[in-house]
Write a structure and sequence with these properties.
Helix content: 25-40%
Distance between the termini: 11 Å
Shape: globular
Number of domains: 1
Bound molecules: iron/sulfur cluster
Structural class: mainly alpha
Order of helices and strands: HHHEE
Largest sheet: 2 strands, antiparallel
Radius of gyration: 12 Å
């Protein structure tokens, strides 16, 4: 289990996502956002991983239920989220 997956599991309202494709993946690629160095390729790789994830629908439902300023910056559920996190940010994906 990646640190990201562990941190996501720690979020009280985060659904458990058995089989999440980001577990075991290079977690750093999910944290890339515009302005980060070498971000474009990393974002594309993360989006592709999400696209094949069996938990995509559940993950997307969860992230869409969060207030915009609570959504994790970077790639989650195949979406690039540009806002900075103030609450519930997985610190070290
Ligand atoms: S959709 Fe992406 S961020 Fe969500 S659990 Fe799957 S791989 Fe992880």
């Amino acid at each position: 289990m990646t640190l990201l997956a562990e941190q996501l599991d720690d979020l009280a309202h985060m659904p458990r996502l058995p089989g999440a494709a980001c577990r075991g993946a290079n977690a750093a690629i999910f944290d890339q956002a515009p302005g980060d160095g070498h971000a474009r390729g990393a974002r594309k790789a993360a989006v592709a991983i999400c696209g094949a994830c069996p938990c995509l629908v559940e993950c997307r439902d969860w992230v869409h239920r969060l207030a915009p300023d609570q959504r994790p910056r970077g790639v989650t559920a195949s979406e690039v989220i540009l806002t900075d996190i103030r609450v519930n940010r997985p610190q070290l994906r």
